[in-house]
Amino acid sequence: MKKKVFALLLCGLPLMINAQDAFDVLQMSQTELRGTSRFQSMAGAFGALGGDMSVLTQNPGGIGVYRNSDVGITLSLDCNSTKAGLDKMNQTKFNVNNVGYVGAIRLDSEAVPNLNFGFTYNRLQSYNRHYVGAVSNIPTSMSNFIANEFVNVLGIDSEELLFGEDYNPYFDGNAPWSAITTFDMPTKTKGYVGIINDVGDGSMQGLFGERTTGEAYYEVDERGHADEYNIAFGGNFANKVYWGLDFGILDLDYTSYQTYQEDLLNPWVMVDDKDLFLSDMTDDQTAANWGLYNYLHTKGTGVNFKLGLIWRPTQALRIGAAFHTPTFYDMRDTYCVSADLRAYQYNNLLYNASKESNDGYDYSGSYTISTPWRFMGSVAGVIGTKGIVSLDYEYVANQTMRVGDDRGNNYPDVTNNVKNYFKPSHIIRLGAEYRVNPNWSLRAGYSFKSSQVKKGLDDYTFNGIDPLFVDGGESNYEVVTVGTNPTFQYDNIVHHITCGVGYHYKSFYTDLAYVHKIRNSVYNAFSDVMVKDARGNIVYEMPNVAADVKDNNNRISLTLGVRF
To answer: pTM of this prediction?
Structure first.
């Protein structure tokens, strides 16, 4: 009877959870170096220069620099290589990076020479990335992490899971749904078994025991984009101060397919379904392989506002500043999760179990997020009629990101996690241009983006560094995810090395850019397993399963435009 109640609840109830956690919001908040080819070839160091359609996404004060109207389009070809461990995956994508128009209205006034307006489309981010990898000699199992979170974090046992007179996890927005999926999985021959099992005394046990060894395999396939449509207005005062206001409308579409699997020798598996005896045998007499499979599709629309200024105190010097509000998104997720388990004894199949959330149908849910505040400062030098050197600094307040319900009320637990996990990131952009002759120009640039996560999170334990004791203090980072997927990812550092060439003849211009992007990321299958006592003190810790991921992206970009 208990099993039937459980199955009915699992298949019939909607999943009432906010499917975004702190690391999901971090990923949705990222931007990358895209725009016109001239902008890209100088690594985006345009905050004090202006006169380019890409500045509407950066420093809208640059629209005031325009003296003539401008219309253009930018196309690009991206060749991305992602390596995790020894495995490398390659992708090639064609994109339209920028399409826009800037109209210049000349006024017969020395105080206000012109007022300008513009409309642009910009691709802010491409989420396309696919990588696979394996980790040998894993220190623990994701099943142990799930079992620990299920009991120690929520404090619920199997009876509460099945009946829940005082607590029903099926209506709890913070319930660990990976645990609900991996507990009591139906089989054809042995009734119900589990990747996590009740071992009595209110304890849950994963598959990894004292003598267990194994390997983990993972695959992440991400697709999608974030696009921005800009409406801007600006002008200048006496050709000294240039100003601009920008209203952005954003469209986000993201899809993720994630697989995590383990092959284990001597695991804790059920071999007697009557007495629920868990085997911890030696001599490779038992084996198991299991997997957790997650699908997520996120769509969102958002708005933001930007304000920018450029001051030209002398002909050779320009100083810029810009301020970006967060992007306020309305989001909707569609997602599902499934798990399977196969166990063997003496090379004979004990059982083959599987379970899907909601009887195989997708769940959906709505919520809101706000991305970080951004502040930019820039300086540029104009060297006669031949050269330009420009430097930008951008401060991204990652700790200000927020997640809320579909009415905009913030979730305090996710807000606290954002503050605990993340720190501000800093972006430095340096660009230069040299005019060879009146028609041809050469350009080059470099940008660097620092890590967004606090010390302790970036020193993950699988590399041999204990996050509990970093710099002589206790960090105690236990990463909490919501929804069906315990996995989280983040970037450590991002570099861009760029160059390009430009040609213009009368009103026509064309620019060509090459951008080489290096991104170092970390994949974490789950957080460290921190087992605590009744007072919340950590009794012992089992490190997670993690791996370095490195992206090398090569992009060729072409811009065609006319100024009139």
So the answer is: 0.85
